[in-house]
Design brief:
50% strand; 11 strands; single chain; mainly beta; 4-stranded antiparallel β-sheet; 7-stranded mixed β-sheet
Length: 123
């Protein structure tokens, strides 16, 4: 059974940092590409960052230079390091995995999706 379990969310002040984790199980982690998505209240879900099976990363313009996506194949874990957080980063954050080697930005196109972790940034 495939599981994606996010953790690391919380409440921080603007300018602070958080590191999100996504523990994966039940599939061949290293061969899948993965992504982080977020959804703010009243907004649609947007892509934040993706990482291909070879480790190539891509970022939304809104987080470029502040967020870093990475993965540890030995631990079957995906990470999102978030620095210089802004109030507009407040959202539920979700990880997702796709059996393709290169990920896209369409959330529903991913094979597996987690339940999310809340990030709240206060000004």
């Amino acid at each position: 059974q495939v599981q994606l379990l996010e953790s690391g969310g919380g409440s921080v002040q603007a300018g602070g940092s958080l590191r999100l984790s996504c523990a994966a199980s039940g599939y061949s982690f290293r061969s899948y590409c993965m992504g982080w998505f977020r959804q703010a209240p009243g907004e649609g879900r947007e892509g934040v960052a993706t990482i291909d099976s070879d480790g190539s990363a891509r970022y939304a313009d809104s987080v470029k230079g502040r967020f870093t996506i990475s993965k540890d194949n030995a631990k079957n874990t995906l990470y999102l390091q978030m620095n210089s957080l802004k109030p507009e980063d407040t959202a539920m954050y979700y990880c997702a995995a796709d059996r393709e080697s290169v990920c896209g930005w369409w959330y529903l196109g991913y094979d597996y999706r987690g339940q999310g972790t809340q990030v709240t940034v206060s000004s």
